[in-house]
Amino acid sequence: MVNRIYNFSAGPSTLPLTVMETIKEDFLDYNGIGASIVEISHRHQIFLDILENTKKLFRELTNLPKNYKILFMHGGAQMQFSAVPLNLISRKENKGSYFITGRWGILAEKEARLYGDTEIILDGKTYEYRKIPTFNNRKLDKGTSYAHLTTNNTLYGTRWNSFPNTWEVPLVADATSDILSRIMDYSKFGIVYAGLQKNLGVAGVSIVIIREDLIGNALPQTPKLLNYDVVEKQNSLPNTINVFAIYVMNLVIEWIKKQGGVLEMEKLAKKKSDLLYDVLDDSSFYKILAFPEHRSLMNVTFNLKNETLLKKFISNSEKEGFFGLKGHYLLGGVRASIYNAMPIEGVKELSSYMKEFEKING
Ligand SMILES: *Cc1c(COP(=O)(O)O)cnc(C)c1O
Predict the structure, then answer these.
(1) What is the 104 CA–ligand 1 centroid distance (Å)?
(2) Of 69, 95, 198, 326, which one is the catalytic site residue?
(3) What are the tens digits of pLDDT across the range 46-62?
C-alpha cells in the first residue's frame, strides 16, 4: 500500500488518485505500444489524438463558444504575463489596464510595463488584498488594448465572485488557481489562461483560451514561441510541447467529466470551503484573512490569533498526515489549498484537526 497523505499544497498540488494510478500503469507502455508517452514524437498520431481529445473535452466541459481557440504554451502562467501584452498591447494605443487584487496581478502588471504603458484601474492594496474593491463598471479609457484580472487570488485567498464589465475592451483573466472549479461564461472574456499545475495537472505549461479575433496582432519583437498566431497556426506545436503535461491534463479532465463536470466541481468546492470557513467563523482562536464577501473556494487562508502557536499547528498537522499547510512566505499563517482533486474527506479531517487543536490549545 502506498502511503498517500492529504496534500494541501498551493501548486504544484494534489492530483486525483485514479489519475495517478493510470499514469503509473501507462508509464512504461502506453496503450500497448511498448513505449512511454514521453518517449514518442509529439507529432505522432498517438500524441496528436491526446492533444485533440484534450481540447475537445475542455470545450465540452466549458461550453466554449466556437469563436474561441485553445492553445497550449510553455512557461506556465507567468509566461502569459509577457505573452498577453506582447500579443495584445499593439491593438490600439499601447496600453494594458490591470485590476490588481493580489500578488499575481502585481507581477503581471510589472511585466507588461516592459512592452507598453500600463494603468492600474483597481488596486486592492488599501485593503491589504483581503477583499476585491468595488469596480463601478465604468468605461475604460479608449486607449486601452485589454484589461487584465486574476480570477482567484491564490496567496490571499480571495476571489472575484462575478466579473467586471469592461465593455468593448477585451477582458483577460489569469484563472490558474480556479479554472474548472466554477462555471464561467467564456464569451465575456477575450482571453482566459491558466498554468496547469493547480486544477489541470502538472507544471510548466499553460492553457490559453482566446477569442479568434485577438490573434494576429503581436508586436514585431514577440518571440516565436509566445506569438499566439504562430502557436495557433501550428496546433500548439511550433516546437516540442511538454507531452507529459498534456497527457496528464487529458486524464484530469476526463476525471472531472466522470465526477459530473464543472458544475459538480463548483458544488463540491462550495461544500469543502464551507467546512473550513464554518470552523473558522465559529472560533475565537483563528482569524480568517479574507473578507467574508470575497472568500476563495480554492485557497483558505487564516492565522492563529496567538501566532506563537502557528509552528505547533503546522508541525502537528504534519504528524497527523496533512501536508503543505504552511502559508505563503509573504503572508505567514496557514493556507489550505483545496483544489478540485482534494477529496472532501481530506477537508473533513482537516476541519476536525483544527477544532481539536483549538480545544487543546485555545
Ligand atoms: C500559481 C499561479 C501563478 C504562477 O504560475 P507559474 O506556472 O508558476 O508561472 C500565476 N497566477 C496565479 C493566479 C497562480 O495561482
Answers:
(1) 7
(2) 198
(3) 999 999 999 999 999 99
What is the C-alpha separation between 83 and 279, in angstroms, rounded?
A: 41
CA of 307 to the centre of ligand 1 (A): 28
Quick check: pTM over 0.90?
yes
185 is catalytic: no
Output helix, strand, coil percentages for the chain, rounded to the nearest 5: 40, 20, 40
Average pLDDT over residues 338-358: 98
Domain boundaries in the chain? Answer: 18-259, 261-361
Query: How far apart, in whole angstroms, are the C-alpha atoms of residue 284 and residue 317?
Result: 20
Distance, in Å, from the CA atom of 291 to the CA atom of 233, rounded to the nearest integer, reads 44
Angle subtended by helix axes 17-26 and 243-259, to nearest 10:
140
Domain over 261-361 is classified CATH 3.30.420.10:
no
Residue 289, classified by CB atoms within 10 Å of its CB into exposed (0-12), middle (13-18) or buried (19+), is buried
**Structural element, H or E, at residue 71:** strand 68-74
**Nearest residue by C-alpha to atom 15 in ligand 1:** 177
Taking residue 78's Cβ as centre, other Cβ atoms within 10 Å add up to: 16
Amino acid of residue 38: V
Residue nearest (by alpha carbon) to ligand 1 atom 12:
176
Which CATH number is 18-259 given?
3.40.640.10
| Catalytic residue (one of 174, 178, 272, 326) | 174
Q: Which helix (H) or strand (E) holds 72?
A: strand 68-74
Residues contacting ligand 1 via CB (< 6 Å): 11, 76-78, 104, 150, 154, 174, 176-177, 195, 203
User: Is it the case that residue 219 has pLDDT exceeding 70?
Assistant: yes
Taking all residues of the chain, what is their mean pLDDT, rounded to a whole number? 96
CB 252 within 8 A of CB 324: no
Q: For residue 254, count other CB atoms closer than 10 A to its CB.
A: 18
Q: Which pLDDT score, from 0 to 100, does residue 139 have? A: 77
Spell out the residues 6+ positions from residue 159 whose beta carbon is closer than 8 angstroms to its own. 132, 151, 152, 153, 178, 294, 295, 296, 297, 298
